[in-house]
Amino acid sequence: MTIHDLLEKCDEAYYFDEYEKLVSLCDEVLEIDSSNPTAMGYKSVTHVFFISDDEENISGRVLMKIYDEIRRVCRNEDNIDWEYTEYLKHKPWR
């Protein structure tokens, strides 16, 4: 199985909240490529999810949402109009 196939399975396991499966898939990816940033990111997030003490695991779920947002922004970084975001930051209409 290629790294691309394994990472697709990682995405699927992450989407369906199958964190034990996700960790084992990440281990397989890291055996092939020990510096794969996607697998390292998934694995670090799942470790926080597993060590949380609260029953509903709110801190782990919040971290997962933050990780999702970072991945979404990084994936679409080329499409961001940075000049427009500077305009919004200063809020000239207020």
The whole-angstrom Rg is: 17 Å
Which segments are poorly predicted (pLDDT under 50) over 5 or more consecutive residues?
Answer: none
H-E order? HHHHH
Instruction: Quote the beta fraction.
Output: under 5%
Mean pLDDT: 77
Q: Helix/strand-derived class?
A: mainly alpha
| Major β-sheet annotation | none
Number of strands: 0
Structure description:
It is a single chain. By secondary structure, the protein is mainly α. Helix content is 73%, strand content 0%.
Write a compact overview of the structure shown.
This protein is mainly α and 94 residues long. It has helices at 3-15, 19-32, 37-51, 58-75, 82-90.
Secondary-structure map with pairings?
Elements (H helix, E strand, L loop, with lengths): L2 H13 L3 H14 L4 H15 L6 H18 L6 H9 L4
Helix pairs in contact: 1-2, 2-3, 3-4
List keywords for this structure.
94 residues, mainly alpha, 5 helices
